[in-house]
Design a protein that fits this description.
The protein is built from 18 helices and 21 strands. By secondary structure, it is α/β, with parallel strands linked by helices. The protein folds into 2 domains: about 5-165 and about 320-360, D-Maltodextrin-Binding Protein, domain 2 (3-Layer(aba) Sandwich); about 170-315 and about 375-425, Periplasmic binding protein-like II (D-Maltodextrin-Binding Protein, domain 2, 3-Layer(aba) Sandwich). The strands form 7 sheets. The chain has a 6-stranded mixed β-sheet with strand order 1-5-4-6-20-9.
C-alpha cells in the first residue's frame, strides 16, 4: 500500500455553546448536528462542567494519490466550518481506489474512517460489515438517481455518491469525422480504412468486450451468492445468438480500420496521427484535448452491425463514492466529513480541479459541465450501460475468447464452440 501522510491538527477554543455555521450549498448533504452533543464517541470527546467540548476528534481519510491536494482543501474547509465544535486531528493517506476493498477488509479496525472506492466494491464491503449506513435522506435527493442507486444494497444507502463518470465512450478527431459519421461503427471503420487510419478499442479486456453483448438480449450477471455469474452468451435461440455476436466481432476486429489497442497505445497512436478514434474513459480527457486541441470530440458509443441489424453498443458504467467505516471511533464526525466532501460545493471543486463528472444533480446539470465533451459523452452513454456487478471468473474467460477473435480464429474453431467456452468460463465457480 502506497501511503502519503498529510497530517494537520486544528486546535480551537470552544465556547460553552456549540456554534453552527454550515454553508448553504452543503446544508442539504450534511447529517444533523443535533445528535452530536448527545452521541459523539466518548473516546474522542470529553464534556466539561461548563458544557464546552475538549479532547480531539481523530479521523483518517483515504483518497486517490492524484487527488490528495484537492481533498486536503476539503478537509481544511471542513475544519474551518466546524471550528468551535471540536478539535480535529485528520490524517490524509493515499490509497488507490482499486485497492480500497482489499486493505479495508484485511484490517477494518485500522482502516480509514472515510474512504473513496468504486461502486463495484460496494457489495463486498457491505457483506464484510465494513460500511456504516447513510441515514441522511437529503443525500438521495441531492444526487443523480443512478449514482444513488449504485450506492445502495437492498434499498439501503451505504455510501455518499461522489462521481458519475467511471465508464467509457468514443473519442474522435473532429478534423476527420463529422458528428453523423461517428454514430455508426460501420462508417467509422470505412472512413479509417479509406484513409489508412485506425480506430482503437481494447476488446481483449472484458470491460470493453461487454459492449457487444450488452444490448443484444443476451444475459450475464452476478448470482445471488455474490461470487459466481450466470451467462447465456452462447444462446442458440432468440433475436440475436451468441454466434451472431461472435461473427460480428470477427468482422470488426479483422477490418483494416480497426486496432485492438491498450489505452497507452491508443494515446500514442493519437499523438502520431495513426489513430483518429478510440474507446476510452474520462481519465484520458485532458490528454486527448492536448493531442487534438479544438478538434477533440467525444460522444456515446456507436451502433454496430449484428445479424443485419444496428445494435447500440453497451458499456459498463460506474460511479465512485465515499464510505464511512462501521468501526470508526468517531462515526458521527466521519459521516459529517463524508457528507461535506461530497456536497455540492466540493463536487464543484472536484470537477473544476480534476475534471471529473459529478454525481450531484445540480453540478451535473451546470453549464460548466456541459462544456466538457468527455463528461457529456459518458453521461449520455450511461443510459445504454450496466453497473459492473460480476464475479472474477468473467475476466479470464473474456480474455481467452477475445484473443482468439482478434487473432482471426486461426484454428477455425466453430464459433458455437467458442461462445460455449466463453459462457462456461464466465459461469464457472
Amino acid at each position: 500500500m502506497k501511503k502519503k501522510k498529510i497530517k494537520k491538527i486544528l486546535t480551537v477554543l470552544v465556547a460553552t455553546t456549540l456554534l453552527g455555521g454550515c454553508g448553504s450549498s452543503a446544508a442539504s448533504q450534511q447529517t444533523s448536528t443535533e445528535a452530536l452533543s448527545e452521541n459523539i464517541s466518548e473516546e474522542a470527546t470529553e464534556t466539561t462542567a461548563g458544557g464546552g467540548q475538549t479532547g480531539t476528534v481523530e479521523l483518517k481519510v483515504w483518497a486517490e494519490e492524484n487527488q490528495l491536494e484537492v481533498v486536503q482543501k476539503m478537509i481544511d474547509s471542513f475544519e474551518e466550518n466546524y471550528a468551535g465544535q471540536a478539535t480535529f486531528d485528520i490524517t490524509l493517506e493515499a490509497m488507490s481506489g482499486a485497492d480500497t476493498k482489499k486493505y479495508l477488509l484485511d484490517d477494518v479496525h485500522n482502516g480509514a474512517d472515510v474512504f473513496s472506492f468504486p461502486d463495484d466494491q460496494l457489495d463486498s464491503m457491505v457483506a464484510g460489515g465494513a460500511l456504516d449506513v447513510v441515514t441522511d435522506e437529503a443525500i438521495k435527493s441531492a444526487n443523480l438517481e443512478e449514482a444513488v442507486n449504485a450506492s445502495m444494497v437492498n434499498d439501503t444507502l451505504y455510501a455518499y455518491p461522489m462521481t458519475a463518470d467511471n465508464g467509457y465512450f468514443l473519442y474522435y478527431d473532429k478534423n476527420y469525422f463529422s458528428p453523423e459519421e461517428v454514430t455508426s461503427l460501420d462508417s467509422i471503420l470505412a472512413k479509417c480504412q479509406q484513409g489508412g487510419k485506425k480506430m482503437s478499442m481494447d476488446v481483449t479486456s472484458g470491460w470493453y468486450l461487454y459492449s457487444f453483448f450488452g444490448n443484444t438480449g443476451l444475459e450475464m450477471g452476478l448470482n445471488d451468492d455474490g461470487i459466481t455469474n450466470h451467462c447465456n452468451w452462447n444462446a442458440t435461440e432468440g433475436n440475436i445468438t451468441g454466434v451472431d455476436v461472435a461473427q460480428a466481432l470477427l468482422a470488426i476486429t479483422q477490418n483494416p480500420g480497426f486496432a485492438a489497442m491498450s489505452d497507452g497505445d491508443f494515446l500514442e497512436g493519437a499523438k502520431n496521427g495513426t489513430v483518429v478514434a478510440g474507446v476510452s474513459g474520462t481519465w484520458n480527457a485532458k490528454t486527448m484535448e492536448e493531442i487534438w486541441g479544438k478538434d477533440y470530440g467525444a460522444c456515446k458509443l456507436p451502433t454496430y452491425t449484428c445479424k443485419g441489424q444496428q445494435i447500440q453498443m453497451s458499456s459498463f458504467k460506474g460511479y465512485k463514492m465515499l464510505g464511512v467505516n462501521y468501526y470508526s471511533k468517531n462515526k458521527e464526525w466521519a459521516h459529517k466529513l463524508a457528507a461535506w466532501m461530497t456536497n455540492e460545493e466540493n463536487q464543484t471543486l472536484r470537477f473544476n480541479e480534476l475534471n471529473v463528472g459529478p454525481a450531484n444533480a445540480n453540478v451535473a446539470s451546470s453549464d460548466a459541465v456541459k462544456q466538457v465533451p468527455a463528461i457529456v459523452a459518458v453521461m449520455e452513454q450511461a443510459q445504454y450501460g450496466t453497473l459492473q456487478r460480476i464475479g472474477n471468473s468473467y475476466w479470464t474467460s473474456c480474455g481467452r475468447f477475445a484473443e482468439k477473435i482478434v487473432a482471426g480464429n486461426p484454428a477455425n474453431i466453430p464459433l458455437q464452440e467458442l461462445v460455449d467456452e466463453l459462457a462456461s468460463g464466465i459461469s464457472a465457480s
